[in-house]
Specification:
Largest sheet: 5 strands, parallel
Order of helices and strands: EEEEHHEHEHHEHEHHEH
Number of strands: 9
Strand content: 15-25%
CATH superfamily of the largest domain: P-loop containing nucleotide triphosphate hydrolases
Bound molecules: adenosine-5'-triphosphate, magnesium ion
CATH topology of the largest domain: Rossmann fold
Length: 283
């Protein structure tokens, strides 16, 4: 199947802190629709000429570029694609397969969680997935790094906004990628915010994708046995390497149902330290 970008006409770079897509030719200068989004063509049938109005593919691409730009992906990921991801072990191969299956089989009911050490391409794969579903399929997507969301909500409180107002749009978007899951101070505010966001998406049957540095091992692997609720998680989780300790049993349980889990081994190389990447020109 042809890709929306096959014919060219779209580039990816950065605008400020975010990755940005733009058409190589402004829509207002489109020779086919002049920016109206509609093309007039003439067809000849049964000895007569008919004028037909069709949607301009360039206008469609502009809409998809807007969807991509609204996701607010990190600027450094503007060139991330499935093709540029090079797996170095079996789990990275599986991750690539899982994210591609997700993207190519959309709409799907299940997301994924990618877990692994730093610099192993988790954000790269989230970004490549959101790029594919926004640009190729025209799906509404959003990206959020969890600790930035917490600080955004805290700042919103000072301006009189409720946490719900900020979480609202993230609850509704078709595909949400939550990066750095488990990061933060682990305060009750943070856990309750996360709990609300995930519960809302879970209840609405929305697909959510995650990346984390914490291990996906189940609660049975805990040093201390027992149920960890939203409040009790805090003290016990301070030094834990397990995601279930960092987010609590309620959220972990929902992740198990909502997502496929992929965990990279601890020895997976940090690509930020590879000479190849260190010398790469940033977009
Ligand atoms: N397997 C890979 N193939 C190609 N590029 C990679 C690969 N892994 C990482 N990279 C590149 O290395 C850089 C760091 O990757 P990324 O930010 O996705 O890592 P991460 O796993 O999210 O790390 P962190 O846990 O620190 O957030 C990016 O420029 C990314 O494109
Ligand atoms: Mg990352």
């Amino acid at each position: 199947m042809a890709n929306a970008t096959d014919a060219g006409g779209i580039t990816f770079d950065r605008v400020g802190d975010y990755a940005a897509a733009r058409l190589t030719q402004k829509l207002s200068e489109c020779p086919d629709c002049g920016g109206t989004g509609l093309m007039r063509t003439t067809t000849h049938q049964n000895g007569r000429d008919y004028e037909v109005v069709t949607a301009c593919p360039r206008a469609r691409l502009q809409k998809r570029a807007t969807l991509y730009n609204q996701a607010h992906l990190p600027a450094v990921q503007s060139l991330a694609t499935f093709e540029t991801y090079k797996p170095s072990n079996a789990e990275q191969h599986r991750a690539l397969q899982v994210v591609k299956e997700f993207a190519f089989r959309w709409p799907t009911q299940r997301g994924f969680v990618l877990s692994g050490p730093v610099g192993t391409g988790k954000t790269h794969l989230l970004s490549a997935t959101l790029k594919h579903v926004a640009i190729e399929l025209g799906v509404n997507v959003s990206y959020v790094e969890i600790s930035l969301l917490y600080s955004q909500i805290r700042r919103g409180f000072q301006d009189g906004k409720s946490g719900g107002e900020i979480i609202g749009p993230l609850s509704q978007v078709d595909v949400l990628a939550i990066d750095e899951l488990g990061k933060g101070r682990g305060s009750q505010f943070e856990l309750e915010t996360l709990d609300e966001l995930i519960a809302r998406r879970y209840n609405a049957g929305k697909v959510t994708l995650f990346a984390t540095n914490y291990s996906l091992k189940p609660p049975e692997e805990r040093a201390q046995r027992g149920y960890f609720g939203t409040e009790t998680v805090l003290e016990s989780a301070k030094d834990s390497k397990l995601l279930c300790d960092r987010v609590g049993d309620r959220i972990y349980s929902r992740l198990c149902e909502m997502c496929e889990f992929v965990e990279f081994p601890a020895a997976t190389p940090d690509m930020r330290r590879s000479p190849q990447l260190a010398g790469r020109k940033r977009p």
